[in-house]
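Q: Here's a chain of 372 amino acids. Please give me its 3D structure as tokens.
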Amino acid sequence: MTGRGRGQISPLFGRIAVKLGLSTPEAVAEALRTQEEIRSVGGTPPLLGRILVESGALNPEGVRRILEEVEKRSLVPEIPGVVDLSPALQGDRVLVYRGRLREDGRTVSIRVLRFGLADSEEEVDRFLDEIRTLSRLHHPNVVRVLGAGDIEGIPYVIEEHVLGPTLKLLLEEHGALPEERSLRIAREITAGLEHAHSLDIVHGALRPESILVPRLSGARVTDFCLLGCDAAGFDPGHPGFDALLYLAPEQFQRHGHPSVRSDIYAVGAVLFHMLTGRPPFRGGYREVLRQLLRRPAPDPKVLAPSISEASALLVRRLLAKDPGARPESMGALAGELAAVENDRAREAPLRPEGSSLPDRLRPRRRASRLRD
């Protein structure tokens, strides 16, 4: 399933720039001619906003205002083959909509890449090529990709609809999750990522927003980072800044790229957040980046004293600055998570919460229901 052809975002961007009085019709027309000249010799032109800024006909704040106006106009209803579209979520990297496939009435989710994440037509093409790679993923802990295309040059992905909140919303509502549930969610997303890695696909920007937590099935991974996964993609004004809180340090080094071990770091950062109610590092962009590169992650047991020492040790290992100090693969991590869960299961009867008596001897009227 595909959308429209390349280059159609530029006239729209230009019209809005002129309508808002942020650029002149003459400057926009000249920039459009520049794009066509580059295409005529087989080149890939930059987006119109970049040409206007470099020529002095538009400032960066004007670009931001224009892109916000484009988002307000909601181009999603033009997605071919999808009907009854409605907004569902505004994420840090994507706008999420819900709709139905016209051919069979199936409910789907549509993720539209936020404006500014694809800086050229070449990147839009690369995004769509990589989405076709994601369609090879078939695993119960990965949201299935059904199609892709672009709307006036803005790429989108059609996915199966999963009923349930994102982990981000769950954490915002409840704060720290019970240790048992946190470990289970970590194990489930690890299984999904192990499948992706077996196909040479890394996530690159795993974070609570890219994890869905259905009530009746295991956690599901979505929103694989196909563009902007290096340091330049997460500056303070860039869509996706929240992902910085879960990226591995090496992704911010020169020529740093996502890898198996950076995904493992991200699982550790997400697990840290689930256990403690906060990400490993907090603050503004520069402060977070300085801590990420120079300071060890806080001990989760200091922030959440009730968690087991085994969980705390594992999290600290996953958040090691040196990628080689982390587990070598998602399969190895899955084994370590299972070992921690088994240790807790063996210890639980010896240390029931709130009492030193075995569970079978505790008065029923005082027994508390375990939180899922």
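Q: Can you summarize the key feature?
A: The chain has a mean pLDDT of 80.
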